[in-house]
Amino acid sequence: MNHDLGSIAAALVAKGKGILAADETVPTLTKRFDALGIQSTEQSRCAYREMLFTSVGAAEFISGVIMYDETMRQKSSSGVSFAHLLSDQGMLPGIKVDTGAKPLAGSSGEKVTEGLDGLRDRLSEYRDMGARFAKWRAVIRITNTLPSAACVSANAHALARYAALCQEQHLVPIVEPEVLMDGSHTIVRCEDVTGMVLHAVFRALVEQRVVLEHMLLKPNMVIAGDECSRPVKVQEVAVATLRCLRRHVPAAVPGIVFLSGGQDDLVATAHLNAINRMPRPKPWKISFSYGRALQDPALKAWHGRDENLKLGQQALYHRARCNGAASLGLYTDEMEAVSAGG
Ligand code: 5MM
Fold first, then answer.
1. For position 337, what pLDDT does the model report?
2. Could you tell me which of 62, 132, 86 has the C-alpha nearest to residue 327?
3. Rounded Cα gap, residues 45 and 138, in angstroms
4. In CATH, what is the architecture of 5-337?
5. Span 310-316, mean pLDDT?
6. 176 counts as catalytic
7. At residue 12, does pLDDT exceed 70?
8. How far, in Å, CA of 307 to CA of 184, rounded?
9. Closest atom of ligand 1 relative to the 292 alpha carbon
10. How far is the CA of 25 from the centre of ligand 1 (A)?
11. Separation CA 170–CA 176 (nearest Å)
């Protein structure tokens, strides 16, 4: 495999493929395990990740996997590091490098993502361990009065500093400014805020001399808040999302890989498909970097039991296959039925 940044970015959005976000921190994965009564230990988290990463055939649709530090330092049951296990199967190893969203001083209820101190050395270590790309997530909340300009600019600045350091250390940065779907806001408000955030992020990226050709953007889709009283159709989401991206994402960026953000897994697939089916020109590849929308059915099927390993893997394979088709605009409802029937 060619290891220059442009080739890695292109490989991550290769035709019909997207990214598996499996970079939950220990508290987040523990929350997901708790909901199903699965005990969260270093060993059970390792077994879960091994189940996902060894899913036969998943590499047909999954180009890369984002891991958390704990997973990066663990080994599979056959004694191989997960970075090497993924590479051997044709999936690029990636790593989450932010240290989390912390309360933003001077603001009530907003957060800024931290992790810049010592980042150069951590990136270098991850690269030596086999990582080829990295991820940093900023979270932006919508209310009647938020986000504040201070929150948007602090997060944009941090994302850009992170991305510049990644490129210096030969890792492709995935830049993830997530406008949360929590709240009662309309799709119109989500489009306004997402546009403003993307504008600030790209301004900061250019200021920090980030090479846009050597990065990927991981944005939210433009959707209504989860408590919004007005239902929004799949087609409306596709129109608003593509309009917003065309206005604010430079054509030099090779790929846009959406987060799922708490959407139902089938809905996240339908949205991605509808966006890719839109007739308007799209200068970038558009695919997925889903966490929950890829993992939820697999986690439920596996349920922490060795005897369910294959069921968990089949569930992951199925969602990866559907989303791979959606990244080409070729997903159909029949794909769900066919697979559910075996
Ligand atoms: C998989 O979850 C990632 C890590 O979350 P925490 O830092 O809260 O543990 C998260 O960054 C994820 O990569 C993105 O939000 C996309 O995941 P979803 O579930 O929104 O598709």
1. 85
2. 62
3. 24
4. Alpha-Beta Barrel (3.20)
5. 98
6. yes
7. yes
8. 42
9. 19
10. 9
11. 18
Name the β-bridge partners of 64. 19, 92
Note the pLDDT of residue 3. 67
Cα radius of gyration rounded to whole Å, the chain: 19
Whether pLDDT at 342 is above 90:
no
Q: What pLDDT score was predicted for residue 108?
A: 87
Is the model's pTM score more than 0.85? yes
Domain segments of the chain: what residues?
A: 5-337
* Binding pocket residue ranges, ligand 1, CB within 6 Å: 21, 23-25, 28, 66, 137, 178, 259-261, 290-293
- Alpha-carbon distance of 258 to 176, in angstroms, equals 9
| pLDDT band of 15, cuts 50, 70, 90 | very high
Q: How far apart are the first and last CA of the chain?
A: 34
Q: Which of 92, 205, 193, 191 is nearest to 140 (CA)?
A: 193
Out of 19, 23, 62, 272, give the residue to mutate to test ligand 1, the one with the largest number of ligand atoms within 8 Å of its CB: 23
Catalytic annotation on 70? no
Give the span between the Cα atoms of 220 and 137, in whole angstroms.
Answer: 11
338 pLDDT exceeds 70? no
Please report, as a single letter, which amino acid is at residue 5.
Answer: L
The beta strand positions in the chain, using DSSP E, are 18-22, 62-67, 92-96, 101-103, 111-113, 133-140, 172-179, 216-217, 255-258, 285-290
pLDDT band per the 50, 70, 90 thresholds, residue 87: very high
Given a cut of 60, whether residue 340 has pLDDT beyond it is no
Euclidean distance between CA atoms 287 and 207, whole angstroms: 27
| Burial grade of 14 (CB within 10 A; 0-12, 13-18, 19 or more) | middle
Position 80 pLDDT exceeds 80? yes
Q: Residue 341: what pLDDT?
A: 43
- Nearest-angstrom CA–CA distance, 59 and 57: 5
Mean pLDDT of the chain: 97
78 alpha carbon – ligand 1 mean position (Å): 28
